[in-house]
Every structure is written in C-alpha cells, then in structure tokens.
Amino acid sequence: MFINRKTELDLLDQRYRSNQAELFVLYGRRRVGKTELLRAFCADKPHIFFIATLSSDSEQLATFSQQVYGFNHTEVPSGFTFPSWEAAFQALIDIPMQPRPVIVLDEFTYLISGNKAIPSILQKVWDEKLKNTQIMLVLCGSYIGMMETEVLGYQSPLYGRRTASILLRPMELPSAALFFPTYSEEEKFITWAVVGGMPHYLRTFQDTQDVFSNIRQHILDAHTGTLFNEPRLLLMEELREPRNYFSILRAIAQGRTRLNEIAQGSGMGEVTTVARYLDILQQMRLITRRVPATETQPEKSKKGIYQIDDHFLRFWFRYVHPNQSSLDLGLADAILQQRIKPDLDHFIAAAFEEAARTFTGRLAQAGELDFFPERIGGWWNRDAEIDVLAINHSDKIALVGECKWIVHPVGTSVLDELNQKAQVLKKDHGIEKIQFALFARRGFTPDMQTRCKQEGVRLFTVDLLLNRD
Question: C-alpha distances in angstroms, 381 versus 17, 333, 374, 384, 389?
C-alpha cells in the first residue's frame, strides 16, 4: 500500500521532465519509505533499480553490471561483469535515452562502505560523459550522516553535481491517518502518537483490531511481535556503541531532557561525553534539541531540552526497553495493563502538543494567521510553560496555545490559566498583542465556546488536526 508522498513524487516528476541530465539525491532514515517512493516513481518509466547490499565490492559490481547489460540485451552471459566500476558507469552512456531512463542506486552508502573510491569514480564519469546525456541518476541512502558528508558535503567529489535532493521525513499526521480508514479520529491520533509516521510501522498495525490489541500483538510480544526488536536492530546496525546510546535514549524517554539530567540518568556521568553522543543522535534525526521560540540564537541558548523525534522510538524506550526482562518472560498482558494503559494519555499529550505546533505552522503557510510568525514552537521559563507559541518579535505579536489531551470537554479555567501565562510572556519579551488558541481531545464546554466566540479565541479539536493537510 503506497500512500501520499505527493510532494516528493511531484518533485521527482518535475526533474524527470527537465531537458537535462539529473543527479537526484534521496536520503532518510530506514523504514521511512524511500524504496517504495522510488518504485512508485519508476513504475511507468524505463529504469534500472539496483539495490546495494553488504556483500563484497566485486559481487556488487557483478550484480550492477548484469542489470546494466540486461537493459540492452535479452540475455546476460553467465558470470558477466564489467572490469571496473568506471567501465560499468561508462556503459550507462550506451543505454537508449528515449524514453528517458531512470537509474536508481539504492543503499548507495553500502557501495561507499565497500569501495571508498565510488564517489570519485562516479564524479569522473558524470563530468566526462553522463552530464551531457538525458539520464536521470538517483542516489538513495539510509545513513543520513554519510549521505550528507560523502555525497552532499563540500569535501565530497560529488559536491555541486546534484540537481535536486530530498531528505525524506516521516509522514505527518494527516497522511499517517490514511492507513486506518475504519478507526475513529481519536484512534487514528493515538496510533500515530504510538508508532509515528514511518510507513513500515504504520502498515504493521491493522484497523481491524483496536489500538491496544495492536500494541500487544506487534510491539509487546517477544516471540511474534514484528516491532518488538525493531529499535534494537536499527540502532545496533547504525551505531558503534549502541549500549551508551540506549542509555541516553532511555533517559530522555523517561523525562530527563536537559543535558545534566541525561548525563545523570544514563549513568554516563561526563557531560562532554554525553554531548558528543547527543550530537550524533541529532545528525541521525533521532532526537531534537528544542529551545523556547523566543530565543533569537537557538544554538547558543542554555534553555535547550532534548526530545526523541520518532514516536515509536519514544514509545519503545519508555515502555519496552525498561520492561525487557518481563516481556521475555511472557508478561506482555501485565505490562500493557499495569505500565502502559495507566500512563498512555500522559505519553500521548506530548505528541498532541507536537501536532498542534505543526498544525499552527500549516495555518501560517496557508495565510490563516493575522501575522507572519518568525518562529513557531513552545515556550517555558522557571514559572510558566506555553505549549504552542507563534511569534513575530519585530511586530511584537504572538499567538499562544494550550493543548489538553483529557477525556472531558475543556472549560473556561484553562483559558484563564493560559491568559496568566501569556501575561508573563508579554512582560518578559515586550509582546504588545496576544492571540489565543486552544486544542482539545474531546472538545469544549458550552460556556467555553460562548466565551471564545466573544473573545476571538480559536478552538481546534483532533479531527481538525487530522484532516488539515
């Protein structure tokens, strides 16, 4: 099942229709759907789809050689291989250019791992021959750091050759919800909060059973759960010292979000050492360092806190990793009933705030705010915290929002509390005009609706966040 990715497909199609050679770079985390996107793009076009593996360089060359040779010939001689990678890349010049061919080198970082000279060889052939053809060459990889340094980076031989690139990100809430047509709006949101926007994880859950049954079957079952060991395998494959990263991610998932807290909670002690690990996790797009939206120099701010970006990793390190021994003993039902169900609303609340901030960004993009925000995020100091803040320092205007993931309709006291926080923000940062927005799981009381209509407060519920793409 291939869902959405319209923006990315449109960009690929746009480059395909250009009148020049294209060197397109697509990269992103494992399980984010890169290969499926490229297969959907290539479906109606002549193409070579080469997927690199961890086999030897000579085996990779032989496999690629046979695919290139087979593009022009009905039969490929047994054991055929070009004498070198340069010869194999040169052979691309001889394939028919009408209709335009697409050449995909998937898992390109595996090729580099097996042969460090690949980028230089490809650069030479591109500059001498391929850039003057009608070929569309797509380099695709999962190791984000390596793709950014070895392919896109200034020191890379391929630097300056790419014609376009995409960092493929997890699906946002409205797209993720499409995987579960029979779920209620609330169930769709809860599922997204648990497994996030990775298509592979979303496909694992089935809307023929409820969310908790899916969690029990696919995440908590140590023997048959498809996702039970997924984060462990992912991190062990990509990291040299997974034990230390596991300790850090677990500390963050349990609510230790500041650098000193993470150092203590992970048991690693040295702040400078932990900071290096955090930098690598940020490069992998697994965690984010957040600062208040009022900070004008975020990289220098001392108010930074860390959060796990991927919802499923957040869930796994909060509920699965700490209970590994119990789950190995077959106590999945007990963990679900005693550890997950009582705490899940608190866990989902963070995802609700995140969705509200993203939604506010979409409102700004659509021109549906009364001002152009310079930053959108959250805000906090020692005395107060605001879930959603869109701010324009120059015009001294801001929109502040409160998120309530609670089972009862939200009443007027929440607006009173938000107004008090807004006054602190106003005083501390010289804001002259404040607008208000409220986000609720189960809607608002009649009194709240009446008051907000009178005061111009904007009200949003889960279904609006789900259906606003």
Answer: 51, 40, 20, 6, 13
Let me know if 72 is exposed, middle or buried by CB neighbors in 10 A (0-12, 13-18, 19+): exposed
Of 218, 200, 201, nearest in space to 209 by CA? 218
Residue appearing with tokens 């996107």 = 37
Q: Structural domains in the chain?
A: 6-167 (3.40.50.300), 175-342 (1.10.10.10), 359-467 (3.40.1350.10)
How far is 259 from 298, CA to CA, in rounded Å? Answer: 15
Give dist(CA 118, CA 85) in Å, integer: 8
SS3 content of the chain, % helix, strand, coil (to 5): 50, 15, 35
CA atoms within 13 A on the CB side of 252: 28
Residue 233 has pLDDT above 90, yes or no: no
pTM beyond 0.70, yes or no: yes
**H or E element that contains 401:** strand 397-404
Give the mean pLDDT of 146-175.
Answer: 92
Per-residue pLDDT for 165 more than 60?
Answer: yes
Distance, C-alpha 276 to centroid of its chain: 21
